[in-house]
Amino acid sequence: MRTFLSATVLFAALGAAQQAAPSADAVIRELKSGNAHHVSKRYVHPRVTAARQRELASGQHPHAAILSCADSRVAPEIVFDQGLGDLFDVRVAGNIAGDAELASLEYAAEHLSVPLIVVMGHQKCGAVSAAVEGGEAPGHLPVLIAAIRPAVEQAAKMPGDRVDTAVRINVENVVRQLRDGTPVLSGLCSTGRLRVIGAVYSLDTGKVEWLPAK
Length: 214
Hints:
The protein has helices at about 1-15, 25-40, 50-55, 75-80, 100-110, 125-135, 140-155, 160-180, 185-190, and strands spanning about 65-70, 85-90, 115-120, 195-200, 210. By secondary structure, it is α/β, with parallel strands linked by helices.
């Protein structure tokens, strides 16, 4: 009972009560529109006012969760031209999903009712490049590289640039991992309350390529 109560208090502190969420299709349309603003550098910068900040002090209701790389060049609010409280960001080098990332996404999906999780890799990812290059890695980097290695091994059997191919495969692998994540994410996906999709961001153009569902 003590564990249950502790978790309940944690979730209450992290966010407000659930509210009706937009559909995943509607959110995808908004993200695509925002990315078009980014590509053309004609930003709307929505929901960044002082009034919005005050509104969010009482709770959050993001409409999407973005699992993206921690790379400084890939900031989701800028890439998708979104405002305060719009996105629930989970950022980690190589956009991998360890226990902490999974717990964060479970919180967003179950307790904040986001209808969409986007796993977004990016061109020239340093974490993926390190996994491709191999060799000794200092500190805690081996844990990160080990998570990406399955994508690198798959990419080695395919034509084209090995890093670019591994970036895409890594996104696809993490998408599957989240869809199959029991009991929370898989359950929400099976009932249609949640959709998980993949994307790859181009550093050269600013455009987000949306990967086909598999």
